[in-house]
Specification:
single chain; 225 residues; alpha/beta; 7-stranded mixed β-sheet; two-stranded antiparallel ribbon; 20% strand; disordered N terminus
Length: 225
């Protein structure tokens, strides 16, 4: 594995893992952001689920005055179109596929690998997961939107036409307005997907009730052995 691929926080299992969750953080955070959520999900030890929290690369971010920070892609503007750097999207998609390949090397089939992400990380797992050519266990996308929704249908992989998708958002989110997520839900449904959708009275964050809903959705995907 490359040094970049190893750049992650990993919560190992007791024994060979039977399932994996690859969880991407948001803009300006890092792989240490979401490991604290794992105990709250209540995944039984015997399920042997491995959690991987990669660090995004460091790059200048235009909307933040060109400041260098961890980001899965550059955002050029904060208008409705949210102009993003497509080259970065592709690089991050390739990185996600490299992580999937690594988990498969550990003996985990792709259908037992769940992609998860928050904010920018959620955008990437939607972008990468819907294009991935082998069936995934699920896609968990929080407080985000699809960064290139017009490509959902044209780049969709047949293997993941029925993949379970969970999307959730805060009704008081000042960073990623909820209408962007609602537009993604509409695009997904128009393309034949059946995403599970939740809205919570919260800002750009994760709420306790949301964690309960995530656990209910996630556990059957990773704990069935």
């Amino acid at each position: 594995m490359s040094r970049e691929l190893l750049d992650a926080v990993v919560i190992e299992t007791e024994g060979a893992p039977l399932a994996s969750v690859i969880w991407l953080h948001g803009l300006g955070a890092d792989g240490h952001d979401f490991p604290p959520i794992v105990p709250a999900l209540g995944v039984p030890k015997q399920a042997r689920v491995r959690f991987v929290f990669p660090h995004a690369p460091m790059r200048p971010v235009t909307i933040n005055g060109g400041m260098t920070m961890r980001a899965w892609y550059d955002i050029k503007s904060m208008d409705l179109e949210r102009h993003v750097e497509q080259e970065h999207l592709e690089a991050s998609r390739e990185q996600v596929e490299a992580w999937i390949a690594h988990e498969r090397e550990l003996g985990i089939p792709s259908e037992r690998i769940v992609l998860a992400g928050f904010s920018q990380g959620g955008a990437i797992v939607l972008y990468a997961g819907l294009q991935f050519g082998e069936r995934l266990g699920g896609i968990l996308a929080l407080s985000c939107y699809h960064p290139m929704a017009e490509l959902i249908e044209t780049r969709a992989a047949d293997a993941n036409r029925r993949v379970p998708i969970f999307m959730a958002h805060g009704t008081r989110d000042p960073v990623v307005p909820i209408h962007l997520a609602e537009a993604t839900i509409e695009s997904l449904r128009e393309s034949g997907y059946e995403p599970e959708w939740h809205a919570y009275p919260m800002p750009h964050s994760v709420a306790p009730e949301e964690v309960k809903d995530i656990a209910r959705w996630l556990l059957p995907l990773v704990a069935s052995v």
